[in-house]
Amino acid sequence: MSTLREDARLREHDAVMGEHDEIKCAHDGASWRADVLTIFPAMFPGPLCESLAGKALAAGIWSLKATDIRDFGLGRHRSVDDTPFGGGAGMVMRPDVLDAAIASVADAHDGAKRPLVVLTPRGVPLTQKRVAALAAGPGVILLCGRFEGIDQRVIEARSAEEISIGDYVLSGGEIAALALLDAAVRLLPGVMGAAASAEEESFATALLEYPHYTRPAVWAGRAVPETLTSGNHQAIAAWRHAQAADITKNRRPDLYNQYVASGAQAP
Ligand code: ADE
């Protein structure tokens, strides 16, 4: 995305939302509600206090509440995990503790039922399409896994959806939850506008972005590609399309094949 477009969107967004300096950490009637269940509640809202998501949070377009799973832990040490049946390394998060934490946020509201998402590297890969569907709903309940995993029974009993944000292992689901929330919140009405969501919904059948250039025309001995300064709009469009196709083919053959199968035409 170009800097100019981003700036224009920010100006448009500021005009819509005005100035808000207080971040709400309760639900206070916001229409899109996010609950996060975690043993590290201090990680929230974290970076979501900044930029568009932070302004939208302050404006009450969405709300975020982080609940400490340890509040439902057992015994003097408020334990949330135990050793795995069948042996093996690491600890497993207990189903009774997690279920109590889930109940404290899921059953408390009489409104629309929000999907329960478990962030885990073994989950279904997150897509823009799923993000858009979550943004179009009433909100989410995010359960952040830690340790070796989560007892399977609570995942099944609560019909949880397991989501991964990529084929790498984070030390827990918290950073994945922040990423999912950032992606969803920018699609909420009044945050970036309808244009953004329409644009991004086509991600699965579009090409990756072509390279961008701005002033100076020559920098550190590197000139901007000649076509871009030619003033020939048809040639510029064709150049950009060829670049986008090349980049997509090399970096994401899966996306490229979907693009070709969608029957999209060159400009
Ligand atoms: N927790 C640890 N790694 C993760 C990943 N890649 N996606 C979602 N949750 C995770």
Q: Keywords, please?
A:
single chain; 267 residues; alpha/beta; Alpha/beta knot; Trp Operon Repressor, Chain A; 2 domains; 5-stranded parallel sheet; 3-stranded mixed sheet; 9 helices; 37% helix; elongated; binds adenine
Explain what you see.
The chain has 267 residues and is an alpha/beta fold. The chain has two domains: 4-185, SPOUT methyltransferase, trefoil knot domain (Alpha/beta knot, 3-Layer(aba) Sandwich), CATH 3.40.1280.10; 200-262, Trp Operon Repressor, Chain A. It has nine helices and ten strands. It has helices at 3-17, 51-58, 95-106, 128-136, 152-157, 174-185, 194-201, 233-251, 253-261, and strands at 32-38, 62-68, 81-82, 92-93, 116-125, 139-144, 149-150, 161-164, 218-219, 222-223. The protein has a five-stranded parallel beta sheet with strand order 2-1-6-5-8, sandwiched between helices. Strands 3-4-7 form a three-stranded mixed beta sheet. Strand 9 and strand 10 form a beta hairpin. The longest helix has 19 residues, at 233-251. Residues 1-22 have low confidence and may be disordered. The structure holds adenine. Adenine binds next to strand 5.
